[in-house]
């Protein structure tokens, strides 16, 4: 017998998108940071950046699927709705995260493509170069990518702090909506 979904939690698909993309983004950020400390043009920097790019482009491909599914599936109801200001803050944070999840891989793509670098996807194929090789454009892509990566790190840290505040200080249902307890699923 199929279990009824808790109407106060995101469904499995939305939770899957959330946690998969969170893991991909964290790994890509860590690899990008580690690669930045390696000597340009050497091994293992090239290989690390190939994996970094593959993960970033995967996030870029998953983003529209996640976004459309989120629009179709909607948001679960709250048992106790948050205040209007808390709800608006959460909306702003989520829209910021969506925008950053788009801008970070796009800026990385522009940096790599305009710089004449490869755009591999885990060694299976390479993405097409949709921008001309252009040093100024590559530098603009690099600069944007660098600062957007910092913005992602800051917004993610604030996101985690907000979730921790909800879980441990407010002791409300916010974390349980995306990471429901076993009992909540059954």
TrEMBL record:
A Gene Ontology biological process in which this protein takes part is: respiratory electron transport chain
GO molecular function annotation: electron transfer activity; heme binding; metal ion binding
Q: How does the entry describe its membrane topology?
A: Multi-pass membrane protein
The family database entries (Pfam families) matched by this protein are listed as: Ni_hydr_CYTB (PF01292)
Source taxon at top rank: Bacteria
Cofactor(s) required for function per UniProt: heme b
Which Gene3D superfamilies does this entry report, sorted A to Z?
Transmembrane di-heme cytochromes, Chain C
Localization, UniProt: Cell membrane
The UniProt entry's GO CC annotations, sorted and at most eight, read: plasma membrane
Tell me the protein family, please.
Belongs to the cytochrome b561 family.
Protein name per its UniProtKB record: Cytochrome B561
